[in-house]
Design a protein that fits this description.
It is built from three helices and no strands. The protein is mainly α. It has one domain. Bound molecules: zinc ion (ZN).
Length: 127
């Protein structure tokens, strides 16, 4: 769970935020695909070294290689998605009238400081 979503209890609001984040995080560029390919190739090389080191042959060698590459690509893609969410989330939270740091609902708040986390939200932060 992303830190800012922990204080939001309404499941409808969480779903709306996740939908908005997912819509913004669909911009997969050539750089992303290149980094995924680089991750797969470098892990494939590491898996090859493991296969050689342990003298694996046949199915065992393929299983080790596939497992290493799949694990690497999964971890890498997960990290990229989480990073995209972290970048998009503060702006989405602000547009929904919530604190960009903790997700606290700032509707009707007179102060320029979030009562939940103490973050300065500025005079124009709440719509
Ligand atoms: Zn806050």
């Amino acid at each position: 769970m992303i830190r800012q979503l922990r204080s939001i209890k309404d499941p409808e609001v969480i779903r709306a935020i996740k939908r908005a984040c997912a819509a913004r995080c669909k911009n997969v560029t050539l750089w992303h695909l290149g980094m995924i390919a680089l991750s797969a190739v470098s892990t494939g090389a590491l898996a090859g070294a493991i296969v050689l080191l342990f003298g694996l042959r046949g199915a065992a060698a393929w299983v080790v290689t596939f497992f290493c590459v799949a694990l690497s690509v999964t971890v890498f893609v997960n990290a990229m998605i989480r990073r995209s969410y972290r970048v998009a989330l503060p702006e989405i939270l602000r547009s929904l009238g919530r604190c960009a740091e903790c997700g606290y609902d700032l509707t009707g708040l007179q102060s320029d400081t979030c009562p939940e986390c103490g973050t300065h939200i500025g005079p124009n932060a709440v719509g």
